[in-house]
Amino acid sequence: MEKSKLRIIISISAVIFFLITLHYIGWLSPIEHLLRGIVNKGAEPIYQVSVLDNNIETDTHIQIENLTMQLEILQEENQELQKQLLFFSSTPYEHVGAQIIGRNVDPVANTIILNKGETNNISIGNPVITEEGILIGKIAKVEKDTSIVRLLQDGQSKIAATIRNEEKTIGLIEGGYGLSVQMNTIPQNQNVDIGDTVMTSGLEQGIPRGLYIGKISEVQKEAYQPFQEAIVIPAIDSRTLHIVSVITQEALSQ
User: Fold this and answer.
1) What digits encode the pLDDT tens for the residues 187-228?
2) CATH code of 244's domain
């Protein structure tokens, strides 16, 4: 019995040694190539299914992220529109809601583009405000379906303003000072303090009184100058806005 087992082991070893020898001398290459092709063809569908599953999972994840992002944008816009409705429900102004569809990246010109224009009764000089009634600029150019807003910080921007102090000091808000604006032509005998609120004076045609502009952060007063100046920080950063309102001229003939 043991001799029989030994004989079988020796025979198997001889066959294995013979096959190894044929492999190294290359005589088994055609057979090995054939077998490798059969195995690869059998594995290819499995690989394709695996890749397909990964692609589907990746696409689904991207679609969910896009839908989530779109939902968040719609929620933000809805909140802004609700604030606009609340503000205008307590004011006599007629207005047109608009989306910001472009921004000027020129450091000299500080403007934005709206998706509303002449067809919406918008005209040059109309004030542009946020949903909370904060003034951000005036319409500078109008086309059929779009318009350009010159922001307060623009170097060519000028707005008649007043300070909410005892004297109701009036002056002129001008841009061209970076993110802040400057109130000029303030009489020397007026008491102006840091933290004072600045709003539109109503002395400029087309701009109603009381639109919030910002607060004074610095007062510049020289004894030999006829006027003092004040640096004003706008109440809102216009770069964060997506929806605004344009107060139309019709509202001013109330």
Assistant:
1) 999 999 999 999 999 999 889 999 999 999 999 988 888 899
2) 2.40.10.350
In a domain, 50, yes or no: no
Tens of pLDDT, residue by residue over 58-75, are 666 666 666 676 666 566
Question: How many Å apart are CA 97 and CA 243, to the nearest integer?
Answer: 7
Could you tell me which residues come within 8 angstroms of residue 76 by beta carbon, excluding any fewer than 6 positions away? 242
Distances (CA, A) of 46 to 34, 75, 149, 177: 20, 44, 59, 65
Structure pTM?
0.66
Q: Residue 226's domain spans which residues?
A: 91-252
Residue 169 lies in a domain: yes
126-140: per-residue pLDDT in tens? 999 998 889 999 999
Number of compact structural domains in the chain: 1
Closest by CA to 151, choosing from 134, 165, 169, is 134
* Identity of residue 142: V
Residue 206 lies in a domain: yes
Strand duo 158-163 + 111-114: pairing = unpaired
Cα–Cα distance measured from residue 176 to residue 150, given in angstroms and rounded to the nearest whole number: 12
Burial class (CB within 10 angstroms; exposed 0-12, middle 13-18, buried 19+) of 227? middle
53 within some domain: no
